[in-house]
Structure formats: C-alpha cells, structure tokens
Amino acid sequence: MRRVRCRMSVLVPLALLAIPSFALSVTARAEDLASQVEEFLEARVQRDRFSGSILVARDGKVLVRRGYGMANLEHDVPNTPETKFRVGSITKQFTAMAVMILQEQGKIDVHEKIKKYLPDAPAAWDEICVQHLLTHTSGIPNFTGFPEYPEMMRRHMMLENLVDSFKGKALEFKPGEQFEYSNSGYVLLGYLIEKVSGKPYASVLQEAIFDPLGMKSTGYDNPIPVLKHRASGYAGRGPFRVNASFIDMTVPHAAGALYSTVDDLFLWDRALLTEMLVPQAAREAMFTPIEEGYGYGWVITKQFGRRSVSHGGGINGFVARFLRFPDDGVCVVVLSNVEGTDAWALADDLAAVTLGEKPNHTGNRKEASPSDKEGASPLKEKP
C-alpha cells in the first residue's frame, strides 16, 4: 500500500506538470515563427521601401501586425494597423457574399437568369445567369478597359448610368463558355443587389456583413465625410512619390469601392471559417472554382502544394492582397497605399515563411502597374 501511495504521489505532480509544459512548447514555437516572419519582413520592407500595413496569422494567432511607411506624406502621418486603405477588387468577395446572403433569404438564385431580376436587361443578356456574373463568365465586356475609361473614372456616376456604359456593348463570347475578368459583371451584381433588396449596395453590406462581424473599419469609400485613419494613395517608384490619379468611388462600385484595415480583414478571415453569415453549403459554393480557378469572388488554386483562397486588388494609389490557406490556418493581408507595389509576391513570400516553405526572394512575379487599376485581373494568380 505504501508503494502504491508513493507512486501516486510522484505520478500526479508529473501529470499536472505535463500540461503547462506542452503549452509552453506551443507558445515557444509560435514565438519562434513570429520572429522568423518579422525578420524576413524587415529585410523585404527595407529592400522594397514598402508603404502600407501587413498582418500575418496562423491558427487564429496574429504573428505580425504592423504598419510601414507613411499614410500621408504631406503631414508625415505613419501607416499603422488601424490605417484604412482602399482595397480595390477585394471588394468582389463581399459582393459575392451579399449575393449568397440574399439567396439564403430567398430573394435571389445564382442559377437563375438575371432577366428575372432585371426585366429591362437587353436581349443580348437573355442567357446570362447570376453565376456567370460571379465567375466572370458572362461575356459582358470590362468597362475599365474601354478607351473612355480614363475620363469616365473622374466623373460622379449614378449606378444606372454606369450600367448603361456597357449595357449596349456586344458580348465577347456566349455566356458560360469562357472566362474573362470583368468589372462590369460585378457592377451589375451591385445593381442587382439593390434591385432585389430595395436598399443601396453600401447599406446591404453594412447591415448583412460588416455590422454582424464587428468590422467597424470597413465600408464603401466616400471622400466627402471625414474618415479617421484614411490613407492617401500615391504613385511613383523608389523614393519618388506623387499623388495618385483621382477616381470617383461611384465608378468602381461593387467591383472595387471598399476600404478596410488588416484587422478587419482578419475578422473576415475568421468568419469565413464559420456559419456566421451563410451555411456551409453556400460557403463551399463560393470556394468552388468554375473557370480558370475562379469561384464567387475568389481565386482558388494551389500554392506550396496546399489549397489557397485569395484575391488581389488594385485601384488608383492602392494595391492589396488577401491570401488564405484555410486548411493550414494561415492568413496574410498586405495593404499598400503606393501604386505598383508588388503585394502579390510579398504576400506569397510571407505565406511561404509561415508555412515553413522557401520564399521567392527575387520576387519574380509580374509587378503590379498603374494599368492594373481596379483589380485588372488578379488572375496573375492563375493556377
């Protein structure tokens, strides 16, 4: 009996000690990974003169969350994690989610013809389904590629007039037969959202997505109200910066008019792993590639042998990349307020370091250029 009691007196403390010891080991590994990411990032930021904000997380734990460079050069205001950046075509994933929420409410069906919801649509659009708009397979030409776009982007546009700018154009191909990135399709989705909900697009996103998720630093960008922590957008290479060309934010609309922060996009990442907004089946539909690796507002491909779900954004003065490896719990957000920043390569390399893979230090991806404005094909990420 004494021996048994003696063994128990030794074994119990050891069992109790095993738990905090394991926890310390996990914490140490997380701290080591954070140190590796930070070290890599410091070198890259200095090399590329990066200006913006970055967040890297794994398994729900933020490893790096920092701002670099200036949010406003005129007044020497630095970028911070709270700085609000225009995110360009990252807007599309929120537009797609709004459509899926409306589908859950019975107000829309992605497999229905858009003519059901827009009876005045031209005859050329008779065979276009909502899903064709979501997946860039409608054949509607991209209005940001029109010769008149540089002049159009400076004008305040009513949504109906914006739709009219491409409404009379011939389709580039039969709906569903090809993939061609089209901001026109997502503007049309915004128009459709307003028609079936009876509310402005911005209000639908605010009420259905941003408010429920606590995304208090995300919204439809409007330059008139005072918006604290709003970044200014710049262009120019190296240390030479100039103010970016003006764009009226009524023009990108549901294709690219949102602003956000790294913190809010991390909230969005976490919510996408749950059924907070839509059931699992709806989320799976969003993340199922239809053509060219594109789902509903997302690029789905493989990187480092792992499934990645991402989207980029480019608009006057801003470049963004939101890269997720949901099966590995990795999230990388890169937001920059300098046109031409290679946010694609930086996000890829940060993901590589976080996943224990070799980063591409040469950054040989095509650098984003002013011609990439308004998300002109994030399919530089093609699988």
UniProtKB/TrEMBL annotation:
Segment forming the signal sequence: 1-23
Q: Could you tell me which residues belong to the region Disordered?
A: 356-383
Instruction: Cite the InterPro entries for this sequence.
Output: AmpC-like (IPR050491), Beta-lactam-related (IPR001466), Beta-lactam/transpept-like (IPR012338)
Query: Which Pfam family is an annotated match for this chain, by its short name?
Result: Beta-lactamase
From start to end residue, where is composition biased (Basic and acidic residues)? 358-383
Output the Gene Ontology cellular-component terms: membrane
Print the keywords alphabetically. Answer: Membrane, Signal
* Entry's localization field: Membrane
All copies of domain Beta-lactamase-related, residue ranges? 39-351
Annotated protein name in UniProt = Penicillin-binding protein, beta-lactamase class C
What is the native source organism of this protein? Singulisphaera acidiphila (strain ATCC BAA-1392 / DSM 18658 / VKM B-2454 / MOB10)
- UniProt lineage: Bacteria, Pseudomonadati, Planctomycetota, Planctomycetia, Isosphaerales
